[in-house]
Amino acid sequence: MANQQPQANKAKSFFASITMLIIFIFAWVFYLFVLGNPGNFQGGDLANHPIEEGIGKWLGTVYKGGVIVPFLMSFFLMVITFSIERLLTIGKASGTGSVDEFVRKVKSLLSADNVDGAIAECGKQKGSVGNVIQAVLHKYKEMLTETNMAKDQKILSIQKELEDSTSLELPMLEKNLTILATLASVSTLVGLLGTVLGMIRAFAALAQAGAPDSSALSTGISEALINTALGIGSSAFAIIFYNIFTSRIDNLTYSIDEVGFSIIQTFGSKTK
Asked: Would you place residue 19 in the very low, low, confident or very high pLDDT band (cuts 50, 70, 90)?
């Protein structure tokens, strides 16, 4: 199992890299051929303002945000994609039933000296929580029949099994969370960069026009702010999902620690 874990991590890292590349390509294709469709602009010319009504007006306005837009679109799609992936992974790690109910059942069965029943309950629960507790319970049974070790050594052996099993199962839950954390920061900064570039273009065009044109200036500002909206939106979603997932992972970790402590405490009270 220890040998399989690094291979699984490499496969997931490769999957994440390919996914980001596909999303980035899709964002650029969407930007060039959907947002940049000539039909979205007056006279069918991309240099003109967007048409004045219909969905083409909004598509054209977003296109006018500039080359930063496809980057921000790809960030937003990455946030949604990896959030769905983490949601499915963490949900699978929780197992088939309520984690709190599973913890209560295992503790109750241990109190009744029904170790086999507790192991069977882990098999029903499945997921990372069930796998970790099942491994610890097998070590628990093994230590009950061990005669060549002192009580303290047996407890340390059970505790080590808990730590090893947890270190193998839980890291996969945090996979790709660093991507969400990074996107939460980068999206806002890139959005602001796009806004600044858009404002520079707007004022430069206004200066070249000679007489002040309030309509052109307001249009340029609105197009520049598209980047801010996309950046802040992506960042907000990334922060929300990141906090939700870290909270759920903390709850799973707490549940594992709670049952692990109960197992060690039960072993200590029932052995000499």
From this structure: very high
* One-character DSSP codes across 135-175: HHHHHHHHHHS--SS-HHHHHHHHHHHHHHHHHHHGGGGST
Count of domains in the chain?
1
pTM for the structure as a whole: 0.87
Burial 35-73 (b: 16+ CB within 10 A, else e): bbeeebbeeeeeeebbbeeeebeebbbbbbbbebbbbbb
Q: Which amino acid is at 179?
A: I
Block residue for tokens 């500039």: 66
What's the CA gap between 211 and 240, in Å, rounded?
46
Only one residue has tokens 């709190």, namely: 100
Mean pLDDT for the stretch of residues 233-238: 96
Please tell me which residue, 30 or 198, carries the higher pLDDT value. 30
Kindly tell me if the per-residue pLDDT of 157 is higher than 80: yes
- How many Cα atoms occupy the beta-carbon half-sphere of 19 within 13 Å? 18
Q: What is the pLDDT of residue 250?
A: 92
Domain of residue 174 covers: 1-272
